[in-house]
Amino acid sequence: MKRQLKKEIIDRLTKANLWINQIENDCRNQKVFMAIRNDKIGFYHKGGLLFSFDESNGFKTHIKYAAVIESNVKDYLSEADLSNSKPITDFESNYKRIKENCSKYSGVEASGVSDIYHKYSYFSDNDVVVLDIEVSFKSNDILVNDELSNKKTTQDRIDILLFKKSTKTLQFVEAKHYSNTEIWSSTKPKVIGQIKKYEGQIKQNEQEIIEQYGNYVNSINNLFQINLPLPEKIDPKVTLLIFGYDRNQFNGRMKELILNKEDYKEIELYKIGGVSKINTGTLWKRGKRGIL
Question: Are 239 and 269 in contact (CB under 8 A)?
Fold first, then answer.
């Protein structure tokens, strides 16, 4: 895994009008979340990869987000109106509409994770912030949105990386919606093995993870002129976050097949019905009590 940006990439980014006039301010206001890979940047919004950025291509977005008509006409078009319309020709002047499209295509888990990073990004005043999302330990870590891409990847990607600033500690979180079949089984749920695999990867790559996220934090500090501390430690346990259930589901299937299941005692588990109500400080402590 690599988490660094060459000076040439930062220079190109900071000279781009889309960055200057739109994205930088949205990052600071937690409307867009910026994640760094190896000389690549991902800008996420409402669970989707709004834009990617690299030295060769500059800004790129998915065709489904950019497939809009450039016009200042009414919201509804007749067939005759199409002859006087044309596709957008630049990202900056159509940024708002691209963001609107991006917000429409996310799955329930990606959308749930976005509720957390839009509220608790590294610009948040909270002690526990979201430092990164969709984290892979593979060297060819990529930026991809599964719902929209034709690319097939076997890479394991952990949904959230939390960072506790006061203790300079990293903690990984895997997020699953209540409807995800990986958390349900009459035998051992698939997610248990997934969490244990992640914990093994963390143990094996601990020093590299700390080093690379030191690079990550340095890039963020330099780009935004902020002062996040550098990470020094990693929590060896990965938290499983389950969300998206109501009271009846919690008192029924959740209690029977998760809370009372011995397999789930092998891992750290945090449960909350409405993910928008989450507090990263409480998530960090991994409250055992189910919350609606």
Answer: yes
CA gap 78, 242 in Å, rounded: 45
Judge whether 250 lies within some domain.
yes
Q: What is the DSSP string of 199-234?
A: HHHHHHTHHHHHHHHHHHHHHHHHHHT--PPPP-EE
* φ, ψ for residue 104, nearest 5 deg: -90, -10
**In whole angstroms, what is the distance from residue 19 CA to residue 153 CA?**
29
- For residue 292, is it within any domain? no
What would the two tokens of residue 121 be? 């990004």
Angle at 39 (CA atoms; ends 35, 43), nearest 5 degrees: 30
**Whole-angstrom Cα distance, residue 72 to residue 77?**
11
141: domain range? 7-285
2 domain residue, yes or no: no
Residue 1 falls inside a structural domain: no
Phi-psi region of 78 (alpha: psi -120 to 50; beta: other; left: phi over 0): beta
In order, the DSSP letters of 253-267 are: IIIIIIIT-GGGGGS
Alpha-helical regions (H) of 86-230: 95-102, 108-117, 190-204, 206-224
Q: Are 221 and 10 in contact (CB under 8 A)?
A: no
Residue 123: which residues within 8 A CB-CB, separation 6 or more? Answer: 27, 28, 29, 30, 129, 224, 226
pTM score of the predicted model? 0.90
- Angle formed at CA 27 by CA 21 and CA 30, multiple of 5 degrees: 130
pLDDT tens readout for residues 117-175: 999 999 999 999 999 999 998 755 666 654 444 444 556 799 999 999 999 999 999 99
Number of domains, the chain: 1
Residue with tokens 């980014």: 13
Q: Which of 276, 190, 247 is nearest to 255 (CA)?
A: 247
